[in-house]
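Q: I'm building a small set of examples for a reading group on sequence design. Run inverse folding on the following structure and report the sequence directly after it, with nothing in between.
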């Protein structure tokens, strides 16, 4: 038996089962062993029925004294009701809904082990749908049994059986973690961990196994990310910008005092730029935290050092907005700024390209248009991308290639919890701008039920009558019979009737790009009062006159996303409002609305969002190409994550290329896990 052998060599795995396993990505015996249980049943302790406590999960072993079929549950499906007795004096009722098929499996007067949660129904103790197993006379109660995530055509018993059959292989599991690390972190060995994650001998051993495997998942990813990063840093021929404090000179010219967070971020950027290594820095800042001023200061530093800079935004409108504010800030210092947009005519475009290639122009602001083949720079030294999550790492890279190892700065308005940032951006240094400029008024936020909709409209009318603008955002473009949610098109019709004296416009993703931009530009210019839209309204769009944001069917949005949407208002001096309208009630909806009502801090909200939704679902984690962890959870196991990161750093300090013979197994394991050694984050 070998880890690479196909599962079909196991007894009981025919073509059907092999196919079912394949659907779970299990092809080899090795795959099978790395298919970890999602939970366990502790059958190591049998509880007498007379000692059962309501609410606990327990293992009961007893005879089926009574078996009642029938009782109808929805559309004539049959229930099965059992009375189980174990000689302790009491009986336990066991109930299966819609389970006529069990009539043949279970037999009266035979002994079974039932494992489930004990409930109390009218004074009687009951288990609903417990798992069960026949117990042969005199057979010992089993230990802790694994509970695997199941797929179609595969039962719990199948998986247990197959894994048990492959388990001897665990003994051959190669130890790939360095011995000193194992000793320092008090980890158990690889073989031990693998055996005990499936069929733990006792609870303590299970704990040791889990700890080791969680550590291992974090450690492998951190090591891979740090290696990418050191490969980037190895490019020692990065640009050394001037050490002169030009950016301070620039900052002093701004009409406001920088916040502490802005100052700290600029100091970090200055140090990066002045060093001979390439800068790879992520600036995370909540909406309105003043990232543009930071970008402008960095650009000024680059230009005064004799280099060009480029700033890439995900949409034309954002690019234009950046162009205008950078132009306003930097032109007085003699910096030549150009906008390279897709909307440029051929002649104008040629002129801009010529200026960039000759170096006559210092800063290019644009969209993807910047990374087209015919764009070249005389001496590109600094590359900034805004709203990073919308660009792939590869696009970032393409822009960088237009210079010789330029410094890069990535800006995102999506506050990412610290734990996730470490994982997602392990290849970048991170600056957090977790402070808003003084004097911002918190946005008054209120959650409303469908019936309270009029309250939102009253407020909207009041604001519109004062010459303010507003947004209504819905999750759907058009009404759909399958989804209980409001749509932009539906609301647009409704609101046009309700607010006939105001200019109402519609915006959604199915519209043509030019049409969308026309609407946004008109809204920007104040020619539209109320914009009914899907989530396409851009992050970063700045319309200070907009003071109302109504989020429809709020139950369908993530917290972080609603926070982003809310950030569209509150950008001027006036008090702004955000109304969340929810259909139906639900614990989570109410909980989520309460978080938004209470907090305006994107970092806090992102942490809560992550807690409520779990890391897998947190916005686009999958899109980032981050491998799914099997056991590790960056929130719950953040301490382990940090320990793993420290160990990875220590290891790579000692042996950056993992050349030592003691690290050969680890190196092999890493290339197994991250086939494209270039970057798992690509
Ligand atoms: P974002 O981080 O969302 O891109 P911006 O850079 O657009 O934020 O800044 C939002 C607004 O705050 C702009 O009008 C900007 O001029 C202003 N601003 C930036 N920094 C400060 C500061 N330190 N004090 C006061 N206002 C500031
Ligand atoms: Mg911005």
């Amino acid at each position: 038996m070998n880890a690479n052998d196909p599962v079909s060599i196991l007894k009981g795995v025919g073509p059907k089962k092999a196919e079912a396993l394949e659907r779970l990505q299990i092809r080899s015996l090795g795959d099978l062993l790395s298919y970890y249980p999602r939970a366990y049943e502790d059958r190591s302790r049998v509880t007498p029925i007379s000692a059962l406590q309501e609410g606990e999960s327990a293992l009961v072993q007893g005879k089926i004294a009574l078996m009642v079929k029938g009782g109808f549950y929805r559309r004539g499906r049959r229930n099965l009701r059992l009375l189980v007795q174990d000689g302790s004096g009491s009986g336990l009722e066991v109930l299966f809904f819609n389970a006529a098929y069990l009539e043949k499996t279970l037999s009266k007067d035979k002994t079974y082990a039932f494992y489930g949660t004990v409930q109390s129904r009218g004074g009687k103790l009951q288990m609903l749908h417990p798992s069960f197993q026949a117990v042969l006379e005199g057979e010992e109660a089993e230990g802790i049994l694994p509970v695997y995530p199941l797929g179609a055509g595969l039962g719990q018993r199948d998986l247990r059986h197959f894994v048990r059959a492959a388990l001897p292989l665990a003994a051959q599991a190669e130890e790939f973690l360095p011995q000193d690390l194992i000793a320092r972190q008090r980890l158990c060995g690889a073989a031990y961990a693998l055996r005990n994650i499936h069929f733990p001998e006792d609870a303590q051993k299970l704990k040791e196994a889990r700890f080791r495997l969680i550590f291992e998942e974090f450690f492998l990813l951190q090591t891979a990310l740090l290696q990418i990063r050191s490969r980037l840093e190895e490019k020692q021929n990065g640009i050394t910008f001037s050490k002169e404090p030009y950016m301070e000179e620039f900052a002093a010219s701004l009409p406001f005092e920088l916040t502490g967070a802005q100052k700290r971020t600029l100091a970090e950027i200055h140090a990066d730029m002045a060093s001979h290594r390439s800068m790879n820095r992520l600036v995370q800042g909540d909406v309105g935290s003043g990232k543009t001023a930071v970008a402008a200061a960095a650009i000024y530093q680059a230009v005064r050092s004799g280099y060009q800079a480029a700033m890439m935004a995900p949409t034309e409108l954002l690019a234009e907005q950046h162009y205008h504010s950078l132009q306003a800030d930097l032109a007085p210092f003699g910096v030549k700024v150009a906008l390279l947009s897709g909307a440029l005519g051929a002649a104008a475009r040629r002129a801009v390209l010529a200026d960039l290639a000759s170096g006559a122009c210092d800063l290019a602001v644009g969209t993807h248009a910047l990374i087209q083949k015919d764009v070249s720079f005389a001496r590109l030294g600094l590359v900034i991308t805004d709203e990073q999550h919308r660009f792939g790492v590869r696009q970032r890279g393409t822009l960088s290639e237009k210079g010789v190892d330029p410094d890069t700065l990535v800006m995102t308005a999506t506050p990412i919890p610290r734990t996730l940032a470490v994982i997602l951006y392990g290849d970048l240094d991170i600056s957090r701008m977790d402070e808003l400029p003084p004097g911002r008024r918190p946005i008054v936020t209120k959650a409303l039920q469908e019936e309270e909709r009029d309250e939102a409209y009253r407020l909207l009318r009041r604001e519109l009558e004062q010459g303010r603008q507003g947004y209504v955002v819905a999750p759907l473009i058009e009404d759909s019979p399958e989804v209980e949610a409001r749509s932009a098109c539906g609301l647009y019709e409704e609101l046009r009737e309700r607010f006939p004296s105001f200019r109402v416009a519609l915006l959604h993703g199915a519209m043509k790009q030019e049409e969308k931009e026309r609407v946004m530009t008109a809204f920007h210019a104040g020619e539209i009062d109320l914009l009914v839209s899907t989530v396409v309204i851009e992050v970063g769009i700045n319309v200070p006159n907009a003071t109302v944001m109504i989020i429809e069917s709020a139950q369908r949005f993530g917290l972080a996303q609603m926070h982003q949407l809310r950030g569209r208002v509150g950008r001027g001096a006036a008090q702004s409002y955000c109304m969340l309208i929810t259909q139906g009630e639900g614990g989570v909806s109410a909980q989520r609305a309460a978080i938004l009502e209470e907090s305006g801090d994107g970092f806090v909200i992102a942490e809560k969002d992550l807690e409520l939704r779990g890391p897998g679902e947190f916005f686009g984690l999958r899109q980032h190409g981050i491998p799914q962890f099997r056991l590790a959870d960056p929130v719950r196991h953040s301490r382990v994550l940090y320990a793993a990161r420290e160990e990875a750093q220590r290891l790579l300090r000692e042996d950056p290329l993992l050349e030592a013979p003691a690290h050969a197994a680890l190196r092999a394991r890493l290339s197994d896990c991250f086939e494209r050694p270039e970057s798992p984050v690509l």
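The radius of gyration is 31 Å.
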